[in-house]
Amino acid sequence: MTVTSVQGNLPQLLLVEPDNMVRSTVASVCRGLDLAQVHQAASLAIGQQMLQAQRMDALLLSLAEGEAAVALIERLREARPEMPVSVMTASADADTVRRLKALGIRRLLLQPFKIRDVVMTVEALCAIAPLEVISGS
After folding, report:
1. pTM for this one?
2. Dist CA 87 CA 16 (whole Å)
3. 20 to 30 A from 77, CA-CA: which of 20, 51, 98, 103?
């Protein structure tokens, strides 16, 4: 099953990532391969405003802001439990992975990552898939 927007176009993906280079690279890959219409946010605060302002089909979220990022996912689950969410992080311990799994996260993308891993992660956001950990390098 593929997620598509109401207009029948590409899925509307919100990418929340503070690192401009990572954000630009992910957005460029998604656009170049027609995986999703990417909306970018450099912070959780901006990302939350964007989630409230317009309908997004999926969320790719950096855990760089720590507990605040997990809290955003928790709030999102209350409002839109069905929304596909994947996260990016430099590291994750077993407790964090358990918490993310309980929140219904589709994929955990460990940084640094390869372009192929980004493609697989965005594709997973657009289809039903269990939590997987994709490690970089």
Report:
1. 0.85
2. 9
3. 20
Other beta carbons within 10 angstroms of residue 74's beta carbon come to: 12
Rounded-to-integer distance, Cα 3 and Cα 60, Å: 14
Which residues, listed in sequence order, are joined to residue 24 by a DSSP beta bridge? Answer: none
What tokens were used for 120? 């697989």
Please tell me the distance from the alpha carbon of residue 33 to that of residue 46, in angstroms, as a whole number. Answer: 26
- Give the type of residue at 79: A
Sequence-ordered list of residues with C-beta below 8 angstroms from that of 132, at least 6 positions apart, any chain: 106, 107, 108, 124
For residue 114 the two structure tokens come to 């390869």
Regarding beta strands 12-16 and 37-41, do their DSSP bridges make them parallel or antiparallel, or are they unpaired? parallel
Please write the tens of the pLDDT for every residue from 34-74: 999 999 999 999 999 999 999 999 999 999 999 999 999 99
CB atoms < 10 A from the CB of 90, how many?
A: 11
- Cα gap 52→134, rounded to integer Å: 29
